[in-house]
Amino acid sequence: MKYTTAYQRDGFGAQYQRIIQTYIYCKLHKLNFLYTPFTSIEHNYNNDNDYIEYMETYINLKNNIQCADNNTNIIEFGSVVMKYCESNIDKVCNTEHLEFIKKCFWEHKDKNVFNNNKVNVAVHIRRENKIDKGIAGTRVTTPNSYYLNIMNIIRTIYKNESLLFHIYSQGNIENFKIFQENDVEFHLDEDVCKTFLGLVAANILVTSPSSFSYCAALLSNGEIYYKKFWHNPRKEWINCG
Q1: Mean pLDDT, 10 residues at a time, over the chain (241 residues)?
Q2: Which residues are CB-contacts of 11 (< 8 A; sequence separation ≥ 6)?
Q3: Integer Cα distance of 70 and 38 in angstroms
Q4: Quick one: which of 80, 140, 188, 220 has the fewest CB in 10 Å?
Q5: Ordered domains of the chain (ranges, CATH)
Q6: Which distant-in-sequence residues (6+ apart) come within 8 Å of 121 by Cβ?
Q7: What is the pTM of this model?
């Protein structure tokens, strides 16, 4: 039998996360995994016709894993994969298989993303966007004060270091005035790939209740400050509630 990721309509982070989980699940259970390329991805704000191919090149799996095709008799893995990976998050992440995913991701990218001599802290703040259509719920209502509190904790812990905080979010700068300091840079409404790369590459990552930053945390080798939501944290992540 051959297996692949279950079809889904969602944003990049959720789909990439599911691909990673299904690939590792199959490898751990000695199942034959075939990669199914993206067919649709939400949050293509500019309606770019080349968006899907651009994202395929970005994650760099299509040329590194055997792909499924229309003639393949294949089983799509659904909830069983997520349940297993959520219950065994540390086992899943401490594998050569995740390292392979990371290797593919970084293959054509410069890891010196920020090009400075600072401790770079990426802060992902999930906010409402037009794709949400008003139904994103509590994922977008975490107050700015929550993130500012964590930033101040990091400032205290790393008081002898030169810190630079990078606020990654969407919306008007007027909504983020609380964060304005000399050690803060804003990245609002930037390209999704540039944003994701910053989250993965940062020395420290502060996640939001979002698959986008959660998936970035899975690929990160940095320190993670985790915002609790429906995906479980690794044991070494700092759980901020």
Answers
A1: 86 94 97 94 80 95 92 84 95 98 97 96 85 56 94 98 97 95 97 96 96 97 94 96 83
A2: 41, 42, 43, 131, 211, 212
A3: 14
A4: 80
A5: 2-106 (no CATH), 119-239 (3.40.50)
A6: 151, 154, 163, 164, 165, 166, 202, 203, 204, 205, 206
A7: 0.93
